[in-house]
Each structure stands twice: as structure tokens, then as C-alpha cells.
Amino acid sequence: MLPKFCIYCGRLESFVCVRCQGLFYEKSGFIAAKGLDNCLVGFVYNKALEYAIKQIKYAGYYRIAGQLAGILVEAHAAQVNDLLNDAIVIPVPLAREKLQSRGFNQAELLAREILASINSQQSNPAARQPHILAPIIKRVSHTTTQVGKNKDWRRRNLSAAFQIDFEVQIPLPAGQNLPRKALLIDDIYTSGITLEICADILRSNGFEQVNGLVLASAKKTIGY
Ligand SMILES: [Zn+2]
User: Fold this and answer.
1) Residue 206 DSSP symbol
2) Which of 48, 75, 131, 204 would be a feasible disulfide site paired with 7, CB 3.0-4.6 Å?
3) How far, in Å, is the centroid of ligand 1 from the Cα of 166?
4) Strand 39-44, strand 29-30: pairing
């Protein structure tokens, strides 16, 4: 296990040290994200967080994902509960080649950790809401080099790489209809184009509300 360092000041204490908690609250919250009704972000992307996320993706320090998800959920429990309420939780898929080499999708790992954190906050197990996690979007082809291509071409190319995976079994509780609300989960928000494409696919397949929950964003957050 890596030592815990504050992702804002580097102090060896916890991922958000006592001194930097104000900074965390100021910078985490909702951002305006193309194609999404609401998008909640936990952290502003910086060098230290980049390092922490790389440890999750490439060195297998899964517990870091759990701890960062825990901080996000604890700080914004009401908002996370709203996003989860009557929603199907969908991790943003990885390209197949990446999934094969990495062995796991960090967005799916984050989704599981977020649900585990929310459940652990509810002390009465009987009162826990059933959450529906289903990776119903798949990536069908590897998007190769995009250098020299224009923005529209890149967008069409990327758009064609995402599809609904109709073979995925959705673990719906007995008697419950398929929700019309979706919560997309991803690790990093940069241009937002992947989330926007995923949201488009969901809307064209009958979803009425599509929200996002992202661990870190390169954009400044805007608050509630
Ligand atoms: Zn700090």
C-alpha cells in the first residue's frame, strides 16, 4: 500500500489533509458538462492526483480508488444519492486492447467503490437502496491514430466505437422496470467528448436523464 499523501499539498497524512479540506470542498462539485444533465466531480486534476490515478491504473493499487471514492461520497452524500436514485450505473468502457492489457476497467472499479461507500454510510442494511450497476456500453473498435484528422472526423470515429451491449444482463430487482435515468462513471474528465458520446447513445436508446460522476476533472468546478 502506498503511503497516503495529500493530493493538494503533498503532506503525508491522508489524501486530503486537514489543512486542505477547505480547498477540496471549494473545488469539488458540479461542472457544466456537454450532453449531461448533471455532472459531479470529486477533485480537480493535478500532478499529485495524476500520480494517484496512475497507481490505480498501472500498478494495481485498487484501494486508492476506494479511498478517493470514499472522500467524494462522504463530502457529497446527498448529491450522490440523488444521482443514484432510480438510476442504472454505467461505467464508461475502455478500449478492448486496453482492457486486455490492464485487466480491469478503472471506471468500473470506481463505480463499485462509489456504491460500496454509499452503502457503508447506511447503517441499516435493510434501508439500503438496491443499486443497479451494468456495463451496458461497450467499445467495439480501437480508435487508431487521429493525428492530422479534423475534429468532426475524430468525433465520428470515436462515436462509432461506442455501442449499447445488448448481451449484458441488467440486475434489476424483481418487478422493477428498466430505469430511464442513467449515471455514467469515469475517472477523468478532460474534453468531455467520451461522456457526451455515451450520453447520446443512452438518450437514443430511451434514457431520459443522463448524469455523470467523475473522480477528477481538468475543468474548474462550479459548485451546486
Ligand atoms: Zn494538504
Assistant:
1) T
2) 48
3) 45
4) antiparallel
For ligand 1, the distance from its centroid to the CA atom of residue 139, given in whole angstroms, is: 38
Burial class (CB in 10 A: 0-12, 13-18, 19+), 118: buried
Distance 124 CA to ligand 1 centre (A): 33
* Cα-to-centroid distance, 9 and ligand 1 (Å): 4
Supply the mean pLDDT for the chain.
Answer: 89
**In Å, how far from its chain's centre is CA 50?**
15
Q: What confidence tens digit (pLDDT) does each residue in 44-83 have? A: 888 888 888 888 888 878 888 899 999 999 999 999 999 9
Structurally, at CATH architecture level, domain 27-217 sits in 3-Layer(aba) Sandwich (3.40)
SS3 185: strand
Ligand 1 center to 158 CA (angstroms): 38
State the distance from the centre of ligand 1 to the C-alpha of 145, rounded, in angstroms: 39
CA of 13 to the centre of ligand 1 (A): 8
C-alpha cell at 69: 471514492
Q: What is the pLDDT of residue 223?
A: 64
pLDDT of residue 142: 58
Domain ranges of the chain: 27-217
Q: How far is the CA of 12 from the centre of ligand 1 (A)?
A: 8
Indicate the DSSP class of residue 82: H
Give 74 Cα–ligand 1 centroid separation in angstroms: 18
